[in-house]
Amino acid sequence: MNGAPNKWDVFKVRADFPALGTLARGKPLVYLDSAATTLKARSVVEAVEKHFLLGAANVHRGVHFLSEVATRQYEEARAKIRLFLNAKENAEIVLTSGTTASVNLVAKSYGTFLKDGDEVLITHMEHHSNIVPWQMLGEERGTKLKVAPVDDSGEIILEEFQKLLSPRTKIVSFVYISNALGTVNPAAELIRLVRAHAPEAVVFMDCAQAVAHVPLDVQALDVDFLAFSAHKLFGPTGTGVLYGKRALLEKMPPVFGGGDMIRSVTFEKTTYAGLPVKFEAGTPNIGGVIGLGAAIDYVNSVGLEAINAWEQELLAYATERLREIPGLRLIGTAKKKTAICGFFLDDVHPHDIGSLLDAEGVAIRAGHHCTQPLMARFGVPATARASFSLYNTKAEVDALVEAIRKAQKIFA
Amino acid sequence: MTTNVQADLYQQVILEHNKKPKNFGKLEGATHTAEGFNPLCGDHLWIYLTVDFAGKIEKVGFEGSGCAISKASASMMTVTLTGKTVDEAKTIFTEFHKLLLGELNPDTEPHQLGKLKIFSGIWQYPARVKCAALSWHTMNGALDRSQTVSTE
Description:
The complex is a heterodimer.
Chain A: H1 10-14, E1 23-24, E2 27-28, E3 30-31, H2 42-55, H3 65-85, E4 93-96, H4 99-109, E5 119-123, H5 132-141, E6 144-148, H6 158-163, E7 169-175, H7 187-197, E8 202-206, H8 218-221, E9 225-229, E10 240-244, H9 246-251, E11 262-265, E12 270-272, H10 286-302, H11 304-323, E13 328-331, E14 340-345, H12 350-358, E15 362-363, E16 365-367, H13 372-377, E17 383-387, H14 394-411
Parallel strand pairs in A: 3-15, 5-6, 5-7, 7-8, 8-9
Antiparallel strand pairs in A: 1-2, 4-10, 9-10, 11-12, 13-14, 14-17, 16-17
Chain B: H1 5-8, H2 12-19, E1 32-38, E2 43-51, E3 57-65, H3 68-81, H4 86-100, H5 126-143, E4 148-150
Parallel strand pairs in B: 1-4
Antiparallel strand pairs in B: 1-2, 2-3
Helix pairs in contact in B: 2-3, 3-5, 4-5
């Protein structure tokens, strides 16, 4: 990959993330919560800062200099996203406030084509944001929600997934990488099954967790919709992307009406703008989008394949070290995983682990990870989750293990 | 700010109540019950109270799952409230609530909290305040005849 270093220099990468030099509870920060949100790269923050300090004009509106600069930067970011996803054209890149907004947009808009008795298929490992919008659609239109089960390792059971597909299936929505388990789902295989057994279904991929770890290619995947958030890609919060195939986006009605999304407005009749602004009513998160463009530049400069290789090394090491801890059960042991380690201790509740690790400067997530049905599936109320990114080190894995052992001693 | 998590959150008394909670289990014949849950973290418990005709709390029980803080808080609450009147329980609830928010200094202000003042450091950990508050809000809901309580 272009720009990828031959040898991974984690300390060079760490210098790009100033937060890593801070203290938490008086201890050096060990940030193992990148699955919740990644730290922000310096170049991203600088790009956002530059926009707000030097030219925070609106886009697609003025003829004045600053507005033209802002519009150009905003549209350049859209082009970067297109290349990043290998979409055919910029018109297929809709800018939203995040993955959640993207799922809801499709549920509200494409959902208008569904009727009573149509089916939406998801999996048992979905985030609440890929469950609730489809339930809301069901309440509105009488569609049925089907759920493909996962096995004890946290993999989708493909035979069961296939059995749930039929001509009644109109939408299939699945997470590419599970935020709670780390499972990397076999996206190409799932999509192949959908095409073979549910010819009328469109496929939506939730790539919120995947985007910072594996390359995404919408054309190779032949996926209909795909969404991710900037804040899990070293970028700002409040910005996200919905990719959709042009033919689908064109026939879909807008969800929000307002400025920017119109061609002409009279009190008698309004005609809508073309793609993608038809779905972007109102002043967008310009600074956030510019930040996302900078985040993509950053990731490209480091190289997603190199990032993935390092994270796999961290995952292997963390898995080995965590398995040494007596009474620790890993939740999520799929064959293909990204560097997310969900775990449960016999004697210490996840929230207590969270607080005790926090006291050591180790930041992890404790809770249900917005995946309550999945927690129920594994028979736990919550898990503790350490998630890794390109800037983490093996020494931080050691710090995690040491802090867990200390917590166990306190609770012994 | 440097804090000492063991002194603030995990004193020996808390750890003991977590390991061996008092009055754990369903209370048959309870006159007041309520279910409480914390949607943010999944803590989930039930509180049972038996109140006599004079308004005296004869028995308190709880069951459910949660972290050490929520379990210890529930356990200590059952001990504290047994034998108190409903009015006294309400007063202690209000004081405990203030204590959790750092609005009551147990060393300088009068209170009836007794051993509960062990929770006085928790306000420094806003994310954990709800863990300690859940059982109390649920108890209060049970006395007020609300059947489901959510600390959101």
